[in-house]
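Exercise: predict the fold of this chain.
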Amino acid sequence: MMVIPVLVPLSQNIGIEIQRAKNLHKVRSLSLGALSVLNIMMTVVCVRLFGIVGCVVGYVFSLVVGNGIIMNIYNHKVVGLDMKKYWQRVLPIVLTPIVPVLIGIIANLVFDTKNIFVFLVVGIVYSLLFGLVWVKFIANAEEKVVIMQLVDKAALIRRFIN
């Protein structure tokens, strides 16, 4: 719950630098400062209602609203960054790996991955699945060419060894 919302600001660090270069970072500082105070207030209330999960509620809320909504609108309308185009390019990269990750989690639950052999097999299958999904849905044409060149070299090496 705490890692996923951080992906947005981490993936947009260049936007923060552009804000600084244009001297447009005051709004970011003020809005995120206000959301930090709101985060503290929400955490105090939510921790009483939900226990330790309540701490996460305020944190996730402040990140989603501050970095996910306010900063994206600000970057798009004021800073001059095309955030619609950014998200059109980034969302497939973020969403496509969900299926392989879920399959990996299920495999980890179903198989005894404490056994080194099973661990290696599950890891190899997961890596191959993730790689195939990446090549099919995320990789651009140039990256696909590099992958095919590597596959061709591996086939050539195999032929030479045999």
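Check your answer against the key: The radius of gyration is 22 Å.
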